[in-house]
């Protein structure tokens, strides 16, 4: 039964949540299989998926394991900023977003302002990247705490039931 209101003007319903759960298990699952699992027509399922993507509820993509592609070091860097303007903060964030070794960048609430995940081929490269960023933004960075990530056990999985 098709919905009368578009997703933009309604909350996720149980069918939407079931579709998201199926896609989390296998993002390449065939529409026919998804439709069967959520008890909808293929067209309704496809429409719901497109609406959720358009609304930004999820983006299609893949999770790349850095160690498997030649980056054995994965570091989580907590950054505390000091006395900065909005423009300076934006400059740092844009720099990190464009940096080829930064794979995640998140704003935090608490003791630190940002968490930045860096990948590196070896300890020399990690040291070089860390030093480069810290020197370039030394007037903005109050504290820098780095931790090596040893293994990923779970990544972005939501139980919507």
Summarize the structure in short.
The protein is of the alpha+beta class and 161 residues long. It has helices at 14-25, 31-38, 42-55, 86-98, 123-136, and strands at residues 73-81, 102-107, 114-120, 141-148.
How would you describe this protein?
It is built from five helices and four strands. The chain has a four-stranded antiparallel sheet. The longest helix is centred in the N-terminal third of the chain and has 14 residues, at 42-55. The chain is α+β, with helices and mostly antiparallel strands. The chain starts with 13 loop residues before the first helix and ends in a 13-residue tail after the last strand. Helix 1 (14-25) crosses helix 2 (31-38). It has helices at 14-25, 31-38, 42-55, 86-98, 123-136; strands at 73-81, 102-107, 114-120, 141-148.
Assembly category: single chain
Radius of gyration over C-alpha positions, nearest whole angstrom = 20 Å
Tally of helical segments = 5
* Unreliable spans: none
Overall average pLDDT:
92
Beta-strand fraction estimate: 15-25%
Total beta-strand segments: 4
Helix share bin:
25-40%
Question: How far apart, in Å, are the first and last alpha carbons?
Answer: 21 Å
Order of helices and strands: HHHEHEEHE
Helix and strand composition category: alpha+beta
Tell me the major beta sheet.
Answer: 4 strands, antiparallel
How are strands sequenced across the largest beta sheet? 2-3-1-4
What overall form do the CA principal axes indicate?
elongated
């Amino acid at each position: 039964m098709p919905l009368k209101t578009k997703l933009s003007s309604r909350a996720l319903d149980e069918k939407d949540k079931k579709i998201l759960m199926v896609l989390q298990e296998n993002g390449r699952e065939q529409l026919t299989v998804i439709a069967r699992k959520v008890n909808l027509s293929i067209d309704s399922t496809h429409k719901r998926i497109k609406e959720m993507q358009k609304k930004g509820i999820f983006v299609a993509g893949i999770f790349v394991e850095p160690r498997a592609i030649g980056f054995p070091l994965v570091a989580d860097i907590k950054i505390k900023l000091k006395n900065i303007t909005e423009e300076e903060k934006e400059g740092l964030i844009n720099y990190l977003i464009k940096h080829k070794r930064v794979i995640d960048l998140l704003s935090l609430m608490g003791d630190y302002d940002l968490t930045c995940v860096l990948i590196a081929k070896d300890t020399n490269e990690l040291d070089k990247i860390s030093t480069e960023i810290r020197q370039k933004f030394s007037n903005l960075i109050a504290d820098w705490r780095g931790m090596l990530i040893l293994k990923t056990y779970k990544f972005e999985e939501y139980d919507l039931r």
